[in-house]
Design goal:
Layout: H1 3-19, H2 25-37, H3 43-49, H4 53-71, H5 81-96, H6 102-113, H7 121-136, H8 141-156
Helix pairs in contact: 1-2, 1-5, 2-3, 2-4, 3-4, 5-6, 5-8, 6-7, 6-8, 7-8
């Protein structure tokens, strides 16, 4: 995978995480900057990347859809089920990259979606398993960690977006 593709996936993931309130708008701006550095370049991406931290909360909602459209990426409206699914996949990817522990992934999924998001339901159940370990013992935490890791791997096998710039804007 090229650095441009990696940057596109990272921007897509940041957009999904922003759409559910998991990260701040300035994190999306940082991802837009990284995408420019990696060689992606569209007019809306440049404008998005130029936002200051102070402007990000106001500008990202207005600019993100166009920037993603120009890159052939998907915009997830805040609160959408597809955005929630994409965010769950992004969080699973963060765990597999070592940015989250298995327990933190399960907790964040459970906290954010409860048991209501079908694609991530097993991770919410595994968060419950961690809670049981705290009170009754039984299974080893490493066993639950292994299940969370396997579930995260299953999630990231879901199809990714393709990088095909468009002339939408």
């Amino acid at each position: 995978m090229s650095s441009a593709e990696s940057a596109a996936y990272e921007l897509q993931d940041r957009a999904a995480l922003w759409s559910i309130g998991e990260i701040r708008a300035r994190d999306v701006v940082d991802a837009a900057c990284d995408a420019l550095v990696a060689g992606l370049d569209t007019p809306a991406l440049r404008v998005l990347a130029a936002c200051t931290r102070a402007e990000a909360d106001y500008e990202v909602p207005e600019l993100l859809r166009c920037a993603l459209d120009e890159l052939g990426l998907t915009f997830y409206p805040p609160g959408s089920v597809t955005g929630q699914e994409a965010a769950a996949l992004a969080l699973a990817g963060e765990m597999l990259a070592g940015e989250l522990s298995p327990r933190e992934l399960a907790f964040r999924i459970h906290q954010r979606f409860g048991h209501e998001l079908p694609v991530a339901k097993r991770l919410a159940e595994l968060d419950d398993e961690y809670d049981i370990l705290d009170y009754r013992g039984g299974r080893a935490p490493s066993d639950v960690d292994a299940e969370v890791t396997a579930e995260a791997r299953r999630l990231v096998q879901c199809p990714r977006v393709s990088l095909e710039p468009t002339d939408a804007h």
